[in-house]
Specification:
Blueprint (H helix, E strand, L loop, with lengths): L2 H9 L1 H9 L3 H12 L1 H13 L5
Helix pairs in contact: 1-2, 1-4, 2-3, 2-4, 3-4
């Protein structure tokens, strides 16, 4: 787990998700979740970083 990705996932969820998985389906899911509410986007981005998902 990269600490920079984790911090970005908390404060700017789509950027943290993009740095972790690139322009994949998880990135676009994170954008939708963030638009629906910041908390779902943060949870999803932190999950991506913590589980070490790759594109």
């Amino acid at each position: 787990m990269n600490i920079v990705n984790l911090i970005l996932a908390i404060f700017i969820p789509p950027v943290g998700a993009f740095l972790q998985v690139g322009a994949s389906k998880h990135f676009f899911i994170n954008i939708v979740l963030t638009l629906l509410g910041i908390l779902p986007g943060v949870v999803h981005a932190v999950w991506l970083v913590a589980s070490n998902q790759k594109g």
